[in-house]
Specification:
Layout lengths: L5 E5 L5 H10 L3 E5 L10 E4 L4 H10 L3 H9 L4 E4 L1 H6 E4 L10 E6 L9 E8 L3 E8 L3 E5 L4 E6 L2 E7 L2 E4 L10 H11 L3
Parallel strand pairs: 1-2, 1-3, 3-4, 4-12, 5-6
Antiparallel strand pairs: 6-9, 7-8, 10-11, 11-12
The structure holds glutamine (GLN).
The site of glutamine has 12 residues, from helix 4.
């Protein structure tokens, strides 16, 4: 069934195909954003995982950065995962860069060290229940402030949060077959959450 929602998926680098497939399975129309002229009238935006430094650089080189920053500041709902979370965070504790900087959280990049570079675990996600969470050289959120709300934690570290229409995860919900985090994002766009 069609959801009637049109979602832009940033497609300059990283794990965007999996988000697109998942959103299409939930009835969304997806637009791959590769250049400025791809940024059309959208109901939501996905910032995928990958490498935040590369994505940040490409966003500027492709002249997409200011347009997306303005849309986000004007209330475009965003689902940001892993590197996408780093792009949205207003502070990165172990990096001097700030990218969109819209979300009142501090993140730590590559926060789990080499040993625990990639892992999966089960954890409770507020409003959904227990889900499987896949981490790949992931950041975690060390601090939230303002009206940002914590949605999931693993071993006392914050791995998902929401502020208004910004939904962020340090893990990769697009890499499991569970569509509930994406479903939560669509509910959020519709104003049902
Ligand atoms: N380590 C990456 C970064 O710092 C994030 C990894 C990911 O998105 N899976 O940008």
């Amino acid at each position: 069934m069609k959801s009637g929602l049109k979602i832009g998926v940033l497609a300059v680098q990283g794990a965007f195909i999996e988000h697109k497939r998942m959103l299409e399975s939930l009835g969304c129309e997806c637009v791959e954003l590769r250049r400025k002229s791809d940024i059309c009238d959208l109901d939501g935006l996905v910032l995928p995982g990958g490498e935040s430094t590369v994505q940040g650089k490409l966003l500027r080189e492709l002249d997409m950065f200011d347009e997306l920053k303005e849309r986000i500041a004007n209330g475009l709902p965003v689902l940001a995962t892993c590197a996408g979370l780093i792009l949205l965070a207003s502070h990165i504790s172990n990096d001097d860069n700030v990218y969109f900087g819209t979300l009142p959280v501090t993140v730590k990049r590559n926060a789990y060290g080499r040993q625990l570079g990639s892992f999966r675990t089960k954890a409770v996600f507020d409003g959904i229940g227990e889900i499987e969470e896949v981490f790949i050289r992931a950041p975690y959120i060390s601090e939230v402030w303002g009206d940002a709300k914590i949605l999931s934690s693993v071993d006392g570290r914050i791995v998902a949060a929401r502020q208004g229409k910004l939904l962020v995860t340090a893990f990769h919900p697009e890499l499991t077959s569970d569509t509930r985090v994406h479903g939560c994002f669509l509910d959020m766009i519709r104003g049902d959450r």
